[in-house]
Specification:
about 260 residues, alpha/beta, Rossmann fold, eight-stranded mixed β-sheet
């Protein structure tokens, strides 16, 4: 197992804290609390993002007919997990989870409770090393890369700075997918309250965590060459909302996350 650094905040554990989870440490909680001081709405994006993920996976399994999912940046297991949502619609769905936090690896058994008809697997790897992900035994064993796959990049790309070439990384992953595959992403933005998110970025940077919120046009670049599913790239609360999601009533500024699903021609 990778070296477990509980003295340094990790995005997966900070996210877990913001969701009200218990798999986090003092450094993660301090980073989250400092982020909330810079932007008091910091609790809103993780919670609306979780609902977005559920709607996206349901759409992909029910309407798009996808049976294979590659979820990169999985985070601490939080029910319902991707395989639970996908297999509720399609019991034979297969899911490979990827994360680089050894704490997530330690809890991965919660991600491996597949239906009898489907399969799940976990890869300990970093998004910034797409070759390690694509050539992993788990991906080769569980996913048939000749058949459509849904690549899930949910709330992860804003932790990859421009210096690490996030567009090149994303393109390498998309290029490995066959025609008919889908890409789903969500990404923090400073479009609505730039000064608050600049403050959050600074807090995370001080804690040793890269965070780079991006404007809508920069987020759209990740999906160049793909066919956007309606309603396109939008604030995630407006992506095929359900009545319970609408009832929450969070403003665009509070959410500050764009999301989209796109199909590879």
């Amino acid at each position: 197992m990778d070296d477990l650094r509980t003295d340094v905040p990790h995005p997966a554990r900070v996210y877990d804290y913001l969701l009200g989870g218990k798999t986090n440490y003092a450094a993660d909680r301090a980073a989250a609390e400092a982020g909330m001081a810079a932007n008091p709405d910091s609790l809103v994006p993780p919670r609306t993002n979780r609902a977005f993920l559920r709607r996206v996976v349901t759409y992909l399994a029910q309407e798009a007919g996808i049976r294979q999912f590659l979820d990169i940046g999985t985070g601490i297991p939080t029910e319902p997990n991707v395989h639970q949502v996908a297999q509720a619609a399609a019991p034979d769905a297969r899911v490979v989870y990827v994360d680089n936090d050894p704490i997530v690896l330690a809890h991965a058994r919660a991600l491996l409770t597949s239906s009898a008809e489907g399969r799940t697997a976990y890869v300990s790897a970093d998004l910034r090393d797409p070759e390690q992900i694509l050539t992993s035994p788990q991906v080769r064993d569980v996913l048939d890369m000749e058949r459509p796959v849904a690549l899930l990049l949910i709330a992860i790309l804003h932790f990859v700075g421009d210096a690490d070439d996030p567009y090149g990384i994303t393109r390498r992953l998309i290029d490995a997918l066959p025609s008919g595959s889908y890409v789903a992403l969500s990404h923090l933005t400073g479009d609505f309250v730039p000064e608050k998110w600049a403050g959050v970025e600074a807090v995370y940077r001080k804690q040793g965590v890269t965070m780079q919120v991006r404007p809508k046009a920069a987020i759209a670049r990740f999906l160049d060459g793909l066919d956007l599913v309606e309603p396109g790239l939008d604030v995630i609360t407006r992506w095929r909302p359900e009545p319970a999601d609408i009832a929450g009533g969070a403003s665009d500024a509070a959410v500050s996350v764009y999301g989209a699903v796109a199909r590879k021609p």
